[in-house]
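User: Study the chain.
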Amino acid sequence: MKVLVCNVGSTSLKFKLFDMPGDVVLAEGKVERVGRTDAIFHYGNRGTGYTVQLEDQSILSYAEGIRRYLDCLTDPENGVIAHVSEIERVGFKTVLAKGFYGIHELTPEVLQAMEDYLIVAPAHNGPYLEAIRQIQQVLPGVKLVGVFETAFHTTIPKARRIYGIPYEWYEEYGIQRMGYHGASHGYIADVLTERNGGTGNAISCHLGGSGSLCAIQNGISVDNSFGFSLQTGLIHANRIGDTDAYIIPYLLAQGKSVDEITKGMDKQGGLLGISGVSNDLRDVQIAAEGGNERARLAIDAYCAGIIHYVGAYYAELGGLDHLVFTGGIGENSSLVREKVCSAVAHFGIVLDEQKNAQRSTQARIISAEHSKVKVWVIPANEELGIARRTYEYQ
């Protein structure tokens, strides 16, 4: 079965065409700067090694980006399929839909549920809704499947999901801790199972521009650091992470508008807000090494949040077998990994400094041989996880 996976950003599109159930990537594509005349288009045929990258392209809509990729897939010389009708399913890394938290065919009811939660995930649901509707037009009759970011976390016990709010708010509005990054954490569970015959007790740290931790027990999610929205949990690149709800009415009383507060929490917070330097940890680290105290504080605060959740999940799991780092920061920042592991060394974690300093595109263990807990760096592969769930969906 040919399964197309579509990953949608606010100004980007990523595609991978899989031949399932063999997990074989046939072709991939990427469009950056959707909506502009200086867009970047990339296509690659995995079988032949053919790649092309075109810059300064006028790609003014998701529809144009999608059509370009499909044209490449069916190109007589460099394509991988004869006709788009060979694509039987399209899987999306959808984020949130009211009342639909697992894996669902993207019916009108599910799309409406995504509309209902636009205010909770505006940067994600809006672009996905547009891309899904464009795919429906160019691939009529193909089954479209939403692998919602909440899907992997539907196993979290209700006592860990419920807020201390009037219960009616939970019933009427669905306000609860949702858990996100499910495609990434679910893929980590897959890798650990394939490598070890099971996950045991594992903590997955997806660290990037957006970050979260997940407690995994015997392959299922039992807790996640995100809350109702994606603004919660760890400090993010621009987003504030966990905060006191009463900061909002206090700032309103000081004369701040709702738009100013929202922008501060969503666009001007996180690593950028604390450091005043950048939302990119690499830039913040350079500034910290140059003596910038706010940059140092941003790194320390970022790591403190990770350590906090690692400690909490260690207690919930009743011990730990695997600590995993993934995502852009998790895979590339030896500093963050060292800070976190040294802080929780009393859990039986012994990091191998040489292995931690090395870079690789392969999954690897960076803990010492005598470490009671295995520390892993596993490159994120959310698309493969989505392809598997889309193929398996009945």
